[in-house]
Each structure stands twice: as C-alpha cells, then as structure tokens.
Amino acid sequence: MSEPLLNHILPVCISVTHLSAFFSNVSMFYKEVNPDSHPSPELFYVNECPKEHKLMIDDKMHTLKAGQLMICPPNTMHWNVSKSHSVITIIGFDTDSDISCLYNKIITLDTKQKQAFAELLTIGARLFTNCPSQGYTRGIGLHRRANAFELQKFKNRIELFLIDLYLAQLEGNVSYRSNKELSAEEQFDLLTSYMNKHLDKAITLEEMSNTFFVSISTIQKLFYRFAGCAPMQYLLNLKLNRAKEMLCTTSLNYTQISQLLGFSSASYFSNFFKKRTGMSPSEYAASVNDTE
Questions:
Q1: DSSP code, position 106
Q2: Domain(s) of CATH 2.60.120.10: residues in the chain
C-alpha cells in the first residue's frame, strides 16, 4: 500500500523584513568618513576601484577589490577608508535569520552572482530614490511609481542572493577566498546574456556600464575582440534575429514585434528591418511562408 501524499510546508530560511539603506554607485572620493553603527546588517560592494578599497570594521582593516563585498554585522562600528577613487554600493537590511557565517568575510562574486546582484540593483534603482550628492543619510524613499509587487520582487531577489551566498559559504566555494577577477570572455558572456534577457528594452552603453561596473571603453573593446563589431551593432543583430524568428513562428504583426523588441516606433523598426534584409517585415514573413 502506497503512502498517502502529503502537503509540505515550505521553509523560510532567510527572510529580509525591512530595508534601511540603498545607495547604488556612491563615489567615495575622500579618504575617510566618520565611524558609524546601525542595528541592521549592511552589505558593502565595491563597484569600481583602481587599486583597493579599505573598510574598517571595529578595529580591523579589510581590503577589498572591485567585484568583492562584505556584510557588516549589526551594531558594529564601521567606516570606509579609501586612498583612491572608489565607487561602492551599500544596502542595509533587517533580517530575523541567522546569517552570521557571512559576516566580516571578503566575498568575491562569481559571474552568476554578479549578474544576480546587477539585476537586484537595477530593480532597486527603479524603486528607491537616489541618495544625496554629498555623503549619505539613513533611510530610503520610494519612487512615485513603485508598487507592492515590485517591492516584493526586490525582497525576493535580495533573499535569493543572500541564500546563494550562504550556500556557497557552507560548501566552501573558492570564490569566497579568491581575488580572481572575471576573464575577458566571462565579462563578454555576462554582457551578451544581459542583452538577450532585455531585448524588449532600449539598452544603452551607459546602462550596461552602470549595471556591470565596467567602463564603456572596456565594453567596446570586449565586443570588437569577441564579436568583431560594436556593442550596439551586436544588440541590433540580436533584435533582428529575434524579429525574424517571431515573424516565422508567431502570428504577431510587425507593430507588436517592434514593441516587444524595444524599438521607438513601428516605422523605425520597419525601416531598420528593410535596410538590413532588403525586405519589409511583411514581405519577409510572406517569403518564408511561400518556401514552406
């Protein structure tokens, strides 16, 4: 006799209950700031740094490089000490979960973790108001268009990100002990993956630079090296191929396709498509149907 099926309660291992700070891409172009202490953990991520960024927690100095983060425990004195121009991200959050295994450790993010963190920052930038230009203050403000669903999406993303860090720590992931930077090919793969996931948007070089903490000139060099063309040309090629696929496999008209692929107007999309293929979208769809 088979055992009866049971409904299983899904556990909550790491829960983020409140957000106390969200400062993305903050320039730390001064040597020292006043020591600070908060009742909540704070995540410090180094977006950019020519050499190294120094973070003091209590009486211990920690040296971080670009692509690394630390989580400062609650109620500990900490401050940033940077002898060169650094750009960092600070996220303060409340949790009733035990994440002490992540505290005071220099964590080097791997490719997937960097992408997850970049997407987290992209969502946060849509939800929360920017920090003041001089220094930063506690607390955050919501953009007028922020809604409960987007806030839950952000909450879920930061929880998943912390869970991934937690599991990697338990498994002894070497990325937590290594200062290895992403290879050029890994950076290129990260950028092209982002393009493929956001074909519905008008992505710019500035957006990718801010999202992945890579200079525009570096992005351009990567695409010429691995794709033989400029980044925006590569993006347009992706959109063109996706448009061809949609025209062949769906009943969508070219106006709907232009919207789904982030073009400013249907006429612009139609002109672009004809210039690249020699046919209008309608003519291309008809030619494909005739050959089948």
A1: -
A2: 16-133+140-176
Residue with tokens 């925006």: 232
Architecture per CATH, 16-133+140-176: Sandwich (2.60)
For CA atoms 117, 119, 125, 126, the dihedral sign is: negative
CATH fold group of domain 182-292: Arc Repressor Mutant, subunit A (1.10.10)
Q: What's this model's pTM, rounded to 2 decimal places?
A: 0.57
Written as tens digits, the pLDDT of the chain (292 aa) is 555 656 666 777 899 999 988 888 877 655 455 678 888 999 999 988 877 888 888 767 788 888 999 999 999 888 877 656 788 899 999 998 888 889 988 899 988 899 899 999 989 888 887 544 344 444 577 887 788 998 999 999 999 999 999 888 776 553 433 333 567 887 888 788 888 888 888 888 988 887 777 788 989 999 999 999 999 999 999 999 999 988 888 888 888 999 999 888 989 999 999 999 999 988 888 887 666 5
Contacts of 136 (CB under 8 A, 6+ apart): 21, 23, 26, 90
Three-class DSSP category at 243? helix
How is residue 143 written in tokens? Answer: 């953009």
The Cα 5–Cα 242 span in angstroms is: 44
